[in-house]
Predict the 3D structure of the following.
Amino acid sequence: MKKMTKLIAVGFTAAAIFLGTNVKAQTIGTGVRLGIGVEGLLPTGNLHDVSNVGVGITPRLQFGVADNLGLTLTSGYLNYFGKELGNTGVKTKSYGMVPVKAGIKAFVSQNIYLSGEVGAAFETSGFGEVKGGPEYDTNTKLLASPGIGWANQTWDVGVRYENYSGQSNNFGAVGLRIAYGFAL
């Protein structure tokens, strides 16, 4: 599963680079833009064992390097709400992360883009902590996220897969990001 997720991330990134340098559809321009996004997240893998849903807020800087190609820097805060473990009456605590990612965004046709980001996710609470139980150490996870989206000069709507790996634990989330952007 780890290798497949990494291959998918590499594939999206390679496609974004290849298509982004050969297609002249959308114009990003060569400037700096800031987008403020809200996120809806659906946990997968081991993360689904401790949470059913997550939300986040993510500011993203975009540096236009060509008419249809931009470099991105994304951070923010993601919160995965805790859930009851089976029918035990034991509930996990919310699981928080601060992602820091750098990436590429390449337009492949009018308003449609492929993206790829890689970075680190810093836990703000221990994975799988239960309410009333001991606190776990927080860790840093490797974060890779391929995505696809639609954007114009103001709005950006994207879907991506977030893969977190590290400390012998690999899990992820499917994310929907809706952002409002403007030039700086």
